[in-house]
Each structure stands twice: as structure tokens, then as C-alpha cells.
Write a structure and sequence with these properties.
mainly beta, five-stranded antiparallel beta sheet, about 50% strand, globular, DUF1653 domain-containing protein, DUF1653-like_dom_sf, DUF1653-like_dom
Length: about 80
């Protein structure tokens, strides 16, 4: 599982993770999060996708990197 807090997407924007929810039909885990920019609506993404690594310029990086529990300044 992951901790609630602030995460940075590999493309640069910051997001607040609210928590992890369980899908009512198949019990998969979904991360509930909101962008720290724009309208800040709620989004969900499968936990497996949220925590996976992606290739950027030939190297593996975390899709979302934990920054901490406290809010950080929003990105554009």
C-alpha cells in the first residue's frame, strides 16, 4: 500500500493522495488522488499503475514519487 501525502508525477505535476479504495466488484485497489493545480477534482487510478515504473529517456523512474505528508507548492 501507499501512504497519503504529496506525490510528484514523473512529468512534474504534484498530486495529493487521499487514500486507497477497494473496488466493490473485484476488490482491486484504487488510489484516490487530486491534482494540486487546476480544478483539483478527484481521480482514481489502479494501485498497480500508480506504483509502477515507466521508461523515460531509456531509464526506469517511478510514475509517482512520494514527496512527503505536508502540502507543497502547486505546479502550473
Amino acid at each position: 500500500m501507499i501512504s497519503p501525502g504529496i506525490y510528484q508525477h514523473y512529468k512534474g505535476n504534484n498530486y495529493e493522495v487521499i487514500g486507497v479504495a477497494t473496488h466493490s466488484e473485484d476488490e482491486t485497489h484504487l488510489v484516490v488522488y487530486r491534482p494540486l493545480y487546476g480544478e483539483r477534482g478527484l481521480w482514481v487510478r489502479p494501485l498497480s499503475m500508480f506504483t509502477e515504473e515507466v521508461k523515460v529517456n531509456g531509464r526506469s523512474v517511478e510514475r509517482f514519487r512520494f514527496l512527503g505528508e505536508k502540502a507543497v507548492e502547486a505546479t502550473s
